[in-house]
Amino acid sequence: MKSHLKSAATLLPFFFLTSFYHLSLSASDSFVYGGCSQIKFDPTSSYQSDLNSIMASAANSASFSAYNNFTTNKSVYGLYQCRNNLPLSECSNCIQTSINQLRALCPNSCGGTIQLQECFLKYDNISFVGVLDTSLIYKRCSPEFSADSGFYERREEVFREIQQVGSNGFSVGSSGTIQGMAQCSGDLEPSDCSACLIQAVGRLRSLCASSVSGDIYLGKCYVRYSSDGFYSSPHGSSNDDGAGKTLAIIIGLLAGVALIIVFLSFLRQVCGKGGGK
Ligand SMILES: *[C@@H]1O[C@H](CO)[C@@H](O)[C@H](O)[C@H]1NC(C)=O
Ligand SMILES: *[C@@H]1O[C@H](CO)[C@@H](O)[C@H](O)[C@H]1NC(C)=O
């Protein structure tokens, strides 16, 4: 553990140095956060093939569904969730990118989680499917504060609107120039989804104060609002080339390694037979 912290700490300057580039590349598959369990599986065990099978199922499913869950012999569990209004071709691309990044980020880890801008992917050897998780994983509040006297009122209108999610656990809303969106992981019951969103909105109020934009990612849901809009950045614009993508992935991985320090404590520390439960 000590040596993990040390090597991750040496990467922190890279994280801060590169986060600027990270933010400037508005690719739909840009990295938000990632984390791995500390416990590794034996690469010669059947865990690897079960995990491969989960990942193959997710990659396959994402071209026809925004959400799905999987298990292999109850040894590995996995699920993914794309932003629900994302075209399925983009969902499929996003999940493929997630799989590649998670493999690089969490080699031989019993559990791993990755959130890109447009999709979420998680696997573990302990079932987490259908389980509400409101732990705070990641927050981002803009450093600019709104000077608009009607800001709080309009943001509350947006919060009220986006908490009315449909059966797909997704919603968008707006008031004035403020836009918002909410997304639950598809495995949550509607009541658990509501409970998760209430927590997320409460954290936005308390943590982001009057920031002009804010994002809160909890274990099983996220809520975002912005006064600049989310959808203004063109998808697949001409600067979204291969080199840019590769850079984004490398930067994302570095950022991810740095974030593991923060995120490790959220993940279970056992993986394999006989632990947990
Ligand atoms: C998980 O997937 C199975 C099989 O497709 C499905 O029957 C089940 O409803 C799913 N569970 C949840 C919580 O989404
Ligand atoms: C998950 O895997 C780890 C490592 O192989 C193991 O120690 C743990 O017991 C496993 N947990 C379950 C529920 O199988």
Automatic annotation (TrEMBL):
Residues 29-128, 133-230 form the Gnk2-homologous domain. It is found in: Cell junction, Plasmodesma; Cell membrane. Keywords: Cell junction, Disulfide bond, Host-virus interaction, Membrane, Repeat, Signal, Transmembrane, Transmembrane helix. It holds the Pfam family Stress-antifung. Its main location: other. The chain crosses the membrane at residues 247-267. It is a single-pass type I membrane protein. Belongs to the cysteine-rich repeat secretory protein family. Plasmodesmata-located proteins (PDLD) subfamily. This is Gnk2-homologous domain-containing protein.
